[in-house]
Amino acid sequence: MRLISGSARLAGVTGWPVAHSRSPRIHNTWLARHGIDGAYVPLPIRPDDFPSVIPALAKAGFAGVNVTIPHKEAAFAICVKVDDFARRAGAVNTLIFTPHGIEGSNTDGYGFVANLRHHGVKPAAGPVLILGAGGAARGIGAALQDEGAEITITNRTPERAAALAAALPPAKVLPWEQREDALGDYALLINTTSLGMVHEPPLPMNLDRAAPGLAVADIIFAPLETQLLADAKARGLKPVEGLGMLLHQAVPGFSAWFGVTPEVDEALYRIVAA
Ligand code: ATR
């Protein structure tokens, strides 16, 4: 058994609610693997309390926290410094408490790209089609552009697609109704919408026109295999599942708080998927 001493390093995940979060499993698995004297705990914080509780955690000796729904924008607002991804996304998912104040980063885009690479998919191998124009699409689009990818955004509400493309120049927009007919022009398809998640309707996306070798990524990880990924697999395309993104986005926070860069591997995947 791993015991926690009086000088243990502490981190956690803040959300409301937070009970569903898989982050404690990820970080505590890494802490155990590396024999680190530390703990990573769930921290349910009401939205009204977030601005006062976070600085209090810093004062209580926490090294930092992850931030999930609904606090990602509020977290941005309390930082003295944010990284480029957080600035472009307007949202923070990782807070690091430093002697100079609270610093924020957004590791979602990093996690997405690292997961692609993990699956042998090159981010800029060809044009990329992103389904959806919410916060997730924004972070992923920015990270892909940094890798040199040419991105096109398609979204049910065209105004949101246009707004996101304007924020990520020279991104293009494709009308939502053309997403299936135009699919052959792309090397990578990414679902960032909520469609296909448990309790949500399936994503309407016929893959008949896919070019051979199309990589199909979903950021949803419940279920582990969405209908979109099952369809991609059945057609011999390259599916990239969403749980890997969650594992990879956790790496920068862990290394900042605990001083070790941890591994994302099959064993971790199985522990977190269970
Ligand atoms: P997040 O910040 O997590 O990306 P979001 O801002 O709520 O979440 O975005 C959800 C995405 O799923 C949006 O692109 C949304 O499309 P709209 O901008 O048209 O709302 C998309 N989405 C949700 N339900 C949808 C549906 N039934 N059909 C098509 N797109 C849908």
Bound molecules: 2'-monophosphoadenosine-5'-diphosphate
**Would you identify the CATH architecture of the largest domain?**
3-Layer(aba) Sandwich
First-residue to last-residue Cα separation: 21 Å
Structural class by secondary-structure content? alpha/beta
Report the CATH superfamily of the largest domain. NAD(P)-binding Rossmann-like Domain
CATH names the topology of the largest domain as Rossmann fold
Element pattern in H and E: EHEHEHEHEEHEHEHEEEHEHHH
Instruction: Give the DSSP E fraction (strand runs of 2 or more residues).
Output: 15-25%
What's the β-strand tally?
12
Low-confidence stretches: none
- Rounded to an integer in angstroms, the radius of gyration calculated over CA atoms is 19 Å
Overall geometric form: globular
Domains (count):
2
* Strands side by side in the biggest sheet: 2-1-3-5-6-4
Which descriptors would you attach to this protein?
274 residues, alpha/beta, Rossmann fold, 2 domains, six-stranded mixed beta sheet, 35% helix, globular, binds 2'-monophosphoadenosine-5'-diphosphate, Shikimate dehydrogenase (NADP(+)), amino-acid biosynthesis, shikimate 3-dehydrogenase (NADP+) activity
Description:
GO terms for molecular function: NADP binding; shikimate 3-dehydrogenase (NADP+) activity. It holds the Pfam family SDH_C. Involved in the biosynthesis of the chorismate, which leads to the biosynthesis of aromatic amino acids. Catalyzes the reversible NADPH linked reduction of 3-dehydroshikimate (DHSA) to yield shikimate (SA). This protein is globular. Strands 2-1-3-5-6-4 form a 6-stranded mixed β-sheet, with helices on both faces. A 6-stranded parallel β-sheet has the order 9-8-7-10-11-12, sandwiched between helices. It is an alpha/beta fold. It is built from 11 helices and 12 strands. The longest helix is centred in the middle third of the chain and has 12 residues, at 135-146. The structure holds 2'-monophosphoadenosine-5'-diphosphate (ATR). The site of 2'-monophosphoadenosine-5'-diphosphate has 14 residues, from helix 6.
